[in-house]
Amino acid sequence: MAQQHKSCCQAPSATASFASLAGSNGFSGAHESPAAISYAAKGSMITFTTPDGKTGSAYFIAAEGKSNKYIFVFQEWWGLNDYIKRQADLYADSLKGVNIMAIDLYDGKVTTNPEEAGKFMQAADDARIRSIITGAYSHIGKDAKVATVGWCFGGGWSLQAALIGGKQTKGCVMYYGMPETDVTKLKSLHSDVVFIFAKEDKWINESVKEEFVKNMKTAGKTLTVKEYDADHAFANPSNPHFNKDFAMDAQQITLRYFRTVLK
């Protein structure tokens, strides 16, 4: 039987708020189209059933040997592209004994066009994405331990997935994603959160960060903010002009964190 997860976060404003940024001035321009890449994939696509009677999919790299440790990886607004798959491979190489699942939130849609990416993000159905994430948890089983990570659009969903996972959630990393603003929902978190913050970000900006800090404190949860003198998307795997030094630093922080929470 599929595991039943909490329904405490059915219609959050956080995901809709981030999706609305697609129409804001300059947002598309902050996301340069990713170039085509060719690489030898370590994993493969899998499918799983979702509570809405459909199927979900993910790019999956199994751990060497049996393991109940998982990292859920959440895409940028482009969709589950080869850059996210390559990043998932990097996590698999760096974190031995951990299964990696890059979950497809767009049901197969992928683009390199910012305008189309904005349309995908705005059209993303909250209930469907929650069903996909819940299906992923059910697929791996109730004894699995999960940490989450995502960038931009996926940064917000990293936190939502941590909420959906309940007691199975052991850690959460958000790269400049929209935080949950409902303190009642934040109180249901079973892990701390690492928030990668770009000081020059015009959208996930200082006021968004400060509200998140305040709300997490009110909720009695631990939030670690890592700040960089950079703009939005500075560490996105698909960004052709990502800040290499800052992105590498944030990645090392993320890897150390995962090693700690998934001992």
What does the main sheet amount to?
A: 8 strands, mixed
Counted by DSSP, the helix tally is 8
Q: Which stretches of 5+ consecutive residues score pLDDT under 50?
A: 1-12
Spatially, the strands of the biggest sheet line up as: 1-2-4-3-5-6-7-8
Oligomeric form of this entry? single chain
Morphology call: globular
What is the H level of CATH, i.e. the homologous superfamily?
A: Alpha/Beta hydrolase fold, catalytic domain
Q: Report the portion of residues in β strands.
A: 15-25%
Number of strands: 8
Radius of gyration: 17 Å
Q: What is the CA–CA distance across the termini? A: 28 Å
By secondary-structure content and strand pairing, the structural class works out as alpha/beta
CATH fold group: Rossmann fold
**Order of helical and strand elements:** HEEEHEHHEHEHEHEH
Highest-level CATH class = Alpha Beta
Task: Name the average pLDDT.
Answer: 93
